[in-house]
Amino acid sequence: MEQQLITFIEQDLLYGEEKISAEEDLLASGLLDSVKIMRLVNHVATSFDMTIPPEDMTIENFVSVAAITNYIRSRQQQIN
Predict the structure, then answer these.
(1) How many CB atoms lie within 10 A of CB 61?
(2) Which long-range contacts (CB under 8 A, 24 or more apart) does 18-21 make?
(3) CB of 1 within 8 A of CB of 69?
(4) Are 68 and 32 in contact (CB under 8 A)?
(5) Cα(19)–Cα(21) distance, rounded to whole angstroms?
(6) DSSP class per residue in 30-41
(7) What are the residues whose beta carbons fall under 8 Å from the beta carbon of 50, sequence distance 6 or more?
(8) Which pLDDT score, from 0 to 100, does residue 23 have?
(9) How many CB atoms sit inside 10 A of residue 32's CB?
(10) 79, pLDDT greater than 90
(11) Which of 22, 46, 62, 79 sits most deeply, having the most CB atoms within 10 A of its CB?
(12) Share above pLDDT 70 across residues of the chain, in percent, rounded to a whole number
C-alpha cells in the first residue's frame, strides 16, 4: 500500500522529477499543491474503493505517505 502511494505520487503527481520517502511532509516541502492533493485524495478513494468524507480531508490524514497509509487502514477497519 505504502509503495503504491509513493509510486503514484512520484510518477503521476511529481512527473518523475522527485523521489519521496514515506515520512516526508508532502505539504510543508511544497511538493504537492491543492490541486495535486485533490488528485491524491481521488486516487486513494478510487484505488482503495472507499469514500473519504470531507471531515477526513485533513492535513493530519494526508501530510505524508505514512499518514495516508494509516488513514486508509483505519477507514478499512471502520468499514469492516
Answers:
(1) 19
(2) 20/65, 21/65
(3) yes
(4) no
(5) 7
(6) SS--HHHHHHHH
(7) 44, 72, 75, 76, 79
(8) 98
(9) 20
(10) no
(11) 62
(12) 99
**From residue 37, how far is each of 9, 34, 68, 74 by CA, in Å?**
10, 5, 11, 20
The Cα 7–Cα 55 span in angstroms is: 26
Q: Quick one: CATH architecture of 2-79?
A: Orthogonal Bundle (1.10)
Task: State mean pLDDT over 21-45.
Answer: 96
Predicted TM-score (pTM) of this structure: 0.92
- Answer for the pair 9, 26: CB distance below 8 angstroms, yes or no: yes
The residues, ordered by sequence, that sit 6+ positions from 57 with a Cβ below 8 Å of its Cβ are 41
Structural domain boundaries in the chain: 2-79
DSSP 46-65: HHTT----GGG--HHHHSSH
In one letter, which amino acid is 10? E
C-alpha cell at 1: 500500500
